[in-house]
TrEMBL record:
GO molecular function: D-aminoacyl-tRNA deacylase activity; metal ion binding
Keyword Chloroplast: no
Protein name in UniProt: D-aminoacyl-tRNA deacylase
Sorted UniProt keywords: Hydrolase, Metal-binding, Zinc
Pfam annotation, one family: tRNA_deacylase
């Protein structure tokens, strides 16, 4: 008997039992019903962003798509276990799309992938991938680009494998070295509860509208999710025994020292918390007894939230902190390593993840 058939037999036995003891079995029945709800990937695009709607249009031009159910005023498209949702608002402000989809359709959202534009002061063309969240902000702080203070979505396990796939696609389509292929640190919204990542085109309107860049992102999604018939890339359940996951701490927005590790085959990556998301108060500037207090700031909260959500996204994995040592002052490094030890979070070296 197949696995699904076995599950069906178990469910029948549970239903029979529950008819006899309904008061004790309601939760069990609800759980087994959820098993049979389809697990889907939700791709989100917005028509107000050319770097979002361009890749979405390129993806929808590929075979197998047909119209799906609407969500409020949003249109959707279906291809196997993938759902592409289009709306007309700022992409970082449309919260809880995963749960709203589940409530509207009965399908369970396994992961969310946002297609978006990337903005950089350098204006350099880039294709980027990153997790989302603003775990370093305090309650009452105003988020600059969606989300909520102290929150981070579970990072999508495909982050590392898709970065490597994106680099290969960009090279084969002659987008490099013109376009930089890079990770970004964890930042901004919108609020989701499912494993999430952003895939972006940067960094000015000229590049947001580039059809070759849009086609590369569409191909990343097509191949990465196995829509063309191949094996999906970045499926954590098929990790081939490599269960160590990199939690990046420190460095700049483009996390170069973490990138050096993630680009190696077989490396899994969770949240990437840059130095600006680890606010620490310099105790050397305090006087007297105040200087003997613990290092202030929201850095502990940022580390804790990013660790916990990374652990949730990689069930059975071992999350190891990878520090960009050169980006920290000595007192910062001492404080961070002490906190990691207190939390039981191990520190990994580059060779530990390969």
């Amino acid at each position: 008997m197949s696995f699904i058939g076995q599950l069906g037999s178990v469910r029948v036995r549970i239903i029979i039992t529950c008819r006899r003891r309904a008061d004790l079995c309601k939760n069990i029945y609800n759980y087994t019903t959820a098993i049979f709800r389809e697990m889907v990937t939700l791709i989100v695009a917005t028509s107000v962003d050319p770097a979002s709607i361009g890749p979405a249009a390129a993806l929808l031009s590929m075979p197998g798509w047909h119209p799906g159910p609407p969500l409020q005023e949003m249109s959707s498209f279906v291809n196997k276990e993938v759902r592409l949702l289009k709306h007309d608002k700022r992409i970082v402000l449309e919260d809880h799309l995963d749960k709203r989809w589940e409530e509207a359709t009965g399908e369970l959202v396994n992961e969310v992938i946002f297609l978006s534009r990337h903005v950089a002061v350098s204006n350099r063309p880039a294709l980027t991938i990153h997790p989302i969240g603003i775990p370093h902000l305090r309650e009452g702080d105003v988020p600059p680009a969606g989300g909520k203070p102290g929150w981070a979505a579970p990072p999508n396990p495909r982050l590392g494998p898709w970065l490597r796939l994106l680099k290969n696609i960009a090279q084969s389509h002659n987008l490099t070295p013109e376009f930089e292929i890079t990770l970004e640190a964890t930042h901004h919204g919108p609020i989701t509860q499912s494993p999430t990542m952003f895939v972006e085109i940067g960094s000015t309107e000229e590049y947001w509208k580039r059809q070759d860049a849009a086609q590369a992102i569409a191909l990343l999604v097509w191949e990465g999710l196995g829509l063309g018939g191949g094996t999906a890339i970045g499926d954590w359940s098929r990790n081939n025994g490599k269960n160590k996951v990199l939690l990046g701490l420190g460095g700049g927005h483009y996390v170069p020292r973490h990138m050096d590790v993630v680009l190696k085959d077989g490396v899994w990556v969770g949240h990437l918390i840059s130095g600006y998301s680890l606010p620490m108060e310099d105790q050397s500037q305090l006087k007297g007894e105040e200087s003997k207090q613990e290092v202030g700031g929201t850095w502990k909260e940022a580390i804790k939230v990013s660790f916990e959500t990374t652990r949730d996204a990689f069930p059975g994995g071992q999350v190891l902190a990878h520090l960009d040592h050169k980006s920290f002052k000595s007192w910062q490094k001492v404080a961070i390593m002490g906190f990691l030890a207190d939390q039981g979070i191990q520190i990994g070296k580059p060779a530990d993840f390969c």
